[in-house]
Amino acid sequence: MMTSRLWRAALPAFLVLAACERAPDAPPADGSNPDATVGVELPAGATADGQLSGVNPGFLGATAPEDAYDLGDGAVCYIYANHVVRVSPRTEGGITGEPRGDEVAVLARGETGAREQCSEPGRIVTQEDEADTFAGIEGDVLFLDRASGEAGRMLIAMDLDANDEVLIEDAYEGDTVEIENGGLRFGTLERTTTAAADLVGVECEQGAEFVESGLEIGIVRLVEYDIDARERRETDRRVCIPLD
User: CA-to-CA distance for 122 and 138, rounded, in angstroms?
Assistant: First the structure.
């Protein structure tokens, strides 16, 4: 009888201890779940399948790709109407952290499965000894922005539909490259000056300010290129840019 009374007295405490052992931990006050699966960190603007939004790697006014996908390790795949372009960072001499432009691989776009084409080899249109940056596609013309040492920057245009024939290989100055209504415009350096008298007939709104500041001024002649007709025209327009 005594044993029965002791058991009944101890039973509530036993049930409380058992309940404490089975009860899950209370969630943190901030509402987070510590047991939830943590997803892989994606690049800014990327979706779970690597799709990027709002990406346009081309010169000013260039046609934006229909889609872009992050491929990891800095590589991006751009999908255009007729072509799939894979752009991968290149390093100089294999030294990590020493960037040297892009390796650009191009494939003709198939009727279906453009996303899957991003993993196909393609043909490489950049040269290993040049520091080229992919600068967009207009129709079948691919553009590269080349860093060329003392020559400054070079504008490269190649015809993907004609065995990658080089259409343009010109030095250009400043931010003068622009694509508009099927045409390309860029500026080539004619001469430099520090004198206001040399700016007569030159489009140079800030010329007086540049002269007063003692800046070296580049006088740039604008060149126009009809992308569809593959025709180049030297214009009579000249603009100024500060070189210092």
Answer: 19
- In total, how many domains does the chain have? 2
Count other C-beta atoms under 10 Å from residue 10's C-beta.
10
Predicted confidence (pLDDT) at residue 33 exceeds the cutoff of 50: no
| Joined tokens for residue 65 | 């790709």
Average pLDDT, the chain: 82
Q: What is the mean pLDDT of residues 182-188?
A: 96
User: Which of 151, 172, 193 represents a domain boundary (last residue)?
Assistant: 172
Are residues 76 and 189 both part of a single domain? no
Tell me: the pLDDT tens digits for 17-31?
A: 333 344 444 444 444
Asked whether residue 211 falls in the same domain as residue 197, the answer is yes
Are the C-beta atoms of residues 227 and 155 closer than 8 Å to each other? Answer: no
Nearest to 186 by CA among 159, 131, 141, 225: 225
At residue 131, what are phi and psi to the nearest 5 degrees? -100, 85
**Strand ranges (E), the chain:** 51-52, 67-72, 75-79, 83-91, 99-108, 123-124, 131-138, 141-147, 153-159, 165-172, 178-180, 183-193, 217-226, 231-242
Q: State whether 47 and 165 are in the same domain.
A: yes
Helix (H) or strand (E) holding 211: helix 207-212
**pTM as predicted:** 0.76
Statement to judge: residues 159 and 130 lie in one domain: yes
